[in-house]
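Entry:
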Amino acid sequence: MVIPAKELTERDTKSRIGPFELELWPDAMDRPALTVPAKSVRNVMAAASPRIETERICQTVGIESAQLSDPCARVPIKQLVAAFETAAQLTGDGAFGLHVGVRTQIRSFGLFGYIVMNCSTFSEALDRVARYFPLWTDGAAFRVIRDGSAAHLTWEYLDPSVVNYRHDCEMTLLCVAKISHFLCDERYRPREIHFQHAAPKDASEHKRLFQTPVHFSKGFNQLIFDKTMLTAPLRSADPELLELLIQFGDSLLAGISTHRTLVDRARIALRQAILKGDVQLNTVSRSLGLGARTLQRKLKVHGVTYNELLSSTRRGLAEHYLRASQMTLREISDRLAFARPGEFHRAFRQWTGKTPHQFRRVNSV
């Protein structure tokens, strides 16, 4: 998750529309995919200093230090994630991401944060988190899944080259858990926290800061909330302000979407379709506002087919899960929406020339 370079003033949100419109999204209509604001790296640097020099982290992850003061600059999300991991390693702080999360407030995410804060109920806030996070970055995404007893807010990196992401992920889930601070009843908190990565040697900070059971080596990065929380009101809600913020947010989302190529949009739609378990052409084309034949025809103009995009997207996800998680092969097969594990095995061997077991043995981190 992206960390803003500085937090907005603590003044009432009702009088603070201008700053995030003018400063945080000056290039929102013209940004490339899978990037984050370069200035977001500054909170990582601030947490690491004075123990580690900023320039040392920048050189390690390939960021120009001059970018950090440029309000319009953007960097690949993988560089931000790498900055988290590098800072954690150099400082020796085994809970570095959590400690960055402690100092970060929801309002510091500008328009996205203020939309979430001004929702009427916790359920609405979760839905807004998933919908409007692309205003900040399209390098990762939230998804809300509701079942009979709970709501699951999952966190997924959309760049398959992002492999080692523990500290950025832990910071992200801690920041989102803070939404419960805006509830009228402060006793509410997540039921469970799940991380895909393995447990660290010392998880005491996770228990202290989340104040709820934390589980590792799970199939998803997610927060699980009891359904009793969903109707809880937010004390910071302002319906009139929310309406204005949503109008502005929707216009930005529309602009971001139209400036992506169709192939970019199709890849993102496929990622979401795979996670939902439905990769049918008709389903994906509808999510893009196109008919199935129209989508196939337009993709052909770009020199790619739907099946090729589906295959490359699945391959990237499969390699990511095999490298960075302890998910079983059956769990990975199910996650990639294969009908049977055997289909996954055959497809992976065609992609890489190796079995999933062989790939994991050589490439696991």
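Residues 42 and 185 are 33 Å apart (CA to CA).
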